[in-house]
Amino acid sequence: MDAHNRQSPRARPATPANLTRGALRRRLLARACVVALLVALPGLQAAEPARPWLDTQRSFEDRAAALVAQMTLEEKAAQMQNDSPAIERLGLPAYDWWNEALHGVARAGGATVFPQAIGMAASFDIPLMDQVSSAISDEARAKHHRFLAEGKHGRYQGLTFWSPNINIFRDPRWGRGQETYGEDPYLTSRMGVSFVRGLQGMDPVTGKPLDPKYRKLDATAKHLAVHSGPEADRHHFDVHPSRQDLYDTYLPAFEALVKEGDVYAVMGAYNRVYGESASASQFLLQDTLRRDWGFTGYVMSDCWAIRDIYTTHAIVATAEEAAALGVKKGTELNCGNTYAEHLPVAVRKGLITEAELDESLTRLMTARMRLGMFDPPAQVKWAQIPYSANQSPAHDALARKMAQESIVLLKNDGVLPLSRDVKRIAVIGPTADDTMALLGNYYGTPADPVTILRGIREAAPQAEVVYARGVDLVEGRNDPAATPLVEAQYLRPSPGANERGLRGEYFRNRDLSGTPALVRVDPVIGFSWDRGSPTDNLMARGEAGPDEAIPADNFSIRWSGQLLPPVSGSYELEAAANDGVRVYLDGKRVIDRWQQADRLTASSATVQLEAGRAYDLKLEYQEGERDAGVRLAWRMPGAKPPFEEALEAARNADVVVFAGGLTGDVEGEEMTVNYPGFAGGDRTDTRLPATQQKLLEAVQATGKPVVLVLTTGSALAVDWAKEHVPGVLVAWYPGQRGGNAVADVLFGDANPAGRLPVTFYKAGEKMPAFDDYTMAGRTYRYFEGEPLYPFGHGLSYTTFDYAGLKLDHATARAGQPVKATVKVRNSGKRAGDEVVQLYVHPRQAGEGRALKDLRGFQRVHLQPGEEREVSFVLDPARDLRHYDEKAQAYVVSPGGYEVQVGASSADIRARTPLTIRAD
Fold first, then answer.
1. Active-site residue numbers?
2. The domain spanning residue 830 has which CATH number?
3. 530: number of CA atoms within 13 Å, CB side?
4. Is residue 802 part of a domain?
5. What does the alpha-carbon distance between residue 812 and residue 918 come to, in Å, rounded to a whole number?
6. Is residue 777 part of a domain?
7. Is residue 14 part of a domain?
8. Residue 38: in which H helix or E strand, if any?
9. Per-residue pLDDT tens for 96-126?
């Protein structure tokens, strides 16, 4: 028995047997009064001497230490895993540290979905990112307290969020590059610091906490530090970057988030760095993170990365050795079960001491206390955020604003903006009406997602908008989404009803039994839920089900109503589901596939239908585990093959909008399904998928003006489109209002000003080996060839002139700030934003040094003819430093530099020399 659990005879409490009846009555009455006071005034818990960790007058660190001191060894180990169990005798509730908020609260049911991280980086707008991250944290807090009120303590319901991903997007083939802020360390740092401050409740200007006592959320900088693919190799490869590449490219964003953003958590990576597991690295976690940067928060492993230490990496031989090594090297929290199961064994074997566990666990408990988890909600400012903040109209408008600002106009030969007089628009392509093209990965469930097709229809009510998907996203996918959904106008929930759609009954079980937990009318049956990390069986993933009343797994739905065919003839009726689905028409079962499926799988039936008749329709669906989705689709009589249908739509249109590119279904995290051009979630070919390229060329050959809208999380080698298509823009994965934002840009209601946060390379460019982490030949900083589109590129519907670049000191010491100013004028006829970018180019670049570095940017709005002076402050000690391998330190080399200001890394409008003299 542990010493702190023993009681001396004198300390033994009196029992009812030792008391008179009157004394017992008085004691029970007194105890009832105390209980009543504790319920009425939660703050009085602080006075309870047996639980000093509830004493709000003590420091969080003291309270955490007092709580840890009461735990057994096994309890301590269990609290160091992500899904920490309750300890009822201590009044400690269960808590799961695993939550996601990459571009909105993810996998926790309904939440506002902002553009994917790579898209937000394309905005180059820090003040707007401040607003977005603050909105995300408002929703996270509101959702957490709603979950608590419902007695829920599970995954995706807490306050510790594993975002942002600030790895450098060094290679366009990496499937998870969409989660990052691009290829540049400076842009990544600025976006990352802003995001962290918004999540953690800090003033965006001063960086000081808005509440001096309680943090709003915990943000997590991931994945420290050299981690960007290949996805298939991440559990076993060992990276040995040059120290110059490490310190000049891979570490700066992490350092900025620690020192400037005060990020409270850091996640290690799966791979090794210099032979050490990134989640058990003396060099990364102890020497760099804590000693050099002064990090005071906690470190966690990526999921099951501690297990990799003894399995795939084989650094040690056993699980208990891996657990001990992880804690000793500085990883306090284990996503997985290695700590819980094997740390007690490690202590008993002498591999680690219980005191070392106490130190790590105290840091974790301090983090929870600083979030207010152990204090009366009335005392915690952030607990007062109302649930109405979640998916609020203001956040919806903010999602649209960020989507507008993220769109990059790559090319415009005068086709844009589209005329309001256009009569017939053909919207063609596989991502035009696909909700997944809006979302990317790590997302929540949007209330009313607007696809590109819908956005165009809403923006152009005067025009006839004809849609044809044309082709699948990629070759060999046999995408069920290729078959058109049965639209709401052909469905009604009951005979004679004016409402359109089908009546949905949602059950909290898989067999449609009992009373439905939710009943509603769904206009169309085209849903995709529960899209989490695609790491095989390792992670329980997903968005909550169709509503928060329904679990993420093990539910079923029955839709019923009537089908109203518009013409007579032979229809192909199709139901696709992951997992089981059945369809009944006039009481006859026409589709029956009532088993689990690994992915969305379609089944079809050919049926004869007559126009003017109403057919009773019933669709039953059941979902087991993980990804969930269901669609009711059909092909009408006489429908042409999809490719020919698209060409016919183009021929009959005044203008064509081709929406293509990628979705999170083909690029992402460690996927198991591969297609031509894709492997494990990464890409082996950066060109537009062949199916789409063939259709695009055929559509362009019709002679109609074409605008190409790309949905993607990475660079696409659209060489052919650059040469032949008059208008090209990149929408990324633009979030829940992405379709509206694209339409806003197409019709000129929003003037595009997004900039590329990554280099777009030509299709024939020979890239360095994907698994080579040397920066030579990568990104605009080291690439000496001619890109297809350079980093920072983006056009506008107006023009801007630059003039008068000057420095307040043309010669300066390494520690002397230098102010650069330049005049920027809107020389066009439309109001618009210009992203003014400042780069520094060393005139005598040494071996391994970057050709140039972004060191400032401002997004400014100017009316036609308006001129503004834009200023930047260069701190040579920060902005001109580079790592010197010989000195084994950052240095500022004296000599000549060129300060460049322009509209992209390649479009430099003004230059001036700067000399740094040796002290």
1. 302, 667
2. 2.60.40.10
3. 24
4. yes
5. 9
6. no
7. no
8. helix 21-40
9. 999 999 999 999 989 999 999 999 999 999 9
